[in-house]
């Protein structure tokens, strides 16, 4: 007779194989609730892929199986992830309602932030206490903006929710799940602490405006992580109920309505640089999560001509991003949006990986353009950057390699890991690995 552990492993393998063999329709499989079938059975539901929007739920399930068999790459990556989750389980929860500064609406439940690269141009006096007018210094953070806590706490909260949900999924440790659920409810659902589903006062410029469409970027590059986290918790996590899931989907749907109908949302959707790419990623991701698959597909299809055509040159460079003062940072940043957008396309049945614009540019070429610097360092990057960090490209190289880019696959072993390790194997979607807290 086989020992108990191998028997359990064989049982998990058999159940997983059975579920993975089920026919799944494109888009709906990752974004809409499963009705009927094996996944509705309590015994098998824990072996079903999470209905994630960017992450590949089937791959997460295969990773769980790989961990049972001690696969080295996934095991090492999980060890790095758990270091982050073990810290996150002791922090927070965070809320927009605890800030000192009151938004122009008078409601602390409204998210508030200031433009990071705008500075006073005059001495501060009793007659001009803010030093108005403010002027832009691209890439140079005004430390006064950090006095408004919502932006920094949002990043901490969303990162923690993502890491904790993944940690629970892979380990089954209920403490991770309960903390992720608490963080989610505190930021989005509980009446005393929840954020209103708008960004009316994001990245305002003192003496100039209360908010800007450009401020939506503060959610665009992180909120799809939260959507995937909620989808993972909805596979049966302790502390996260069906009512919580329904309420969060309702909040997300309201937020999507604001994004698509407000003037700020329309302004951001019209942007021709990373802001526009991330806006598409944000809105298509929410649409998939809330079951609006046709809306998601429309956004993703339009991204071909609307984003890839104007933003990626024939050689793979990104003209709008290399015009910045942090050229490598913003080139890798925009590729986070492009590679995640392409993964959203995989869930919705829209091929962005294979699309080539009339100039010959593509997402693969944009990744390949970075490979010399990503593998050999700043000497291979011919543009200025205020703070070049070679490892910032790692996740986008991972994503392109997974999607079939041979040059990226060959280069991958030569790209250095970030200081927190290589988390991509256990959360296989690109994240910005250098400091994004100052990104605007």
From TrEMBL:
It comes from the Bacteria. It holds the Pfam family Alginate_lyase. InterPro entries: Alginate_lyase_dom (IPR008397), Chondroitin_lyas (IPR008929). Residues 96-381 form the Alginate lyase domain. Keywords: Lyase, Signal. One of its GO terms (molecular function) is lyase activity. Gene3D superfamilies: Chondroitin AC/alginate lyase. The keyword Disulfide bond does not apply. Residues 1-31 form the signal peptide. SUPFAM superfamilies: Chondroitin AC/alginate lyase (SSF48230). One of its GO terms (cellular component) is periplasmic space. This is Alginate lyase. It comes from Amycolatopsis xylanica.
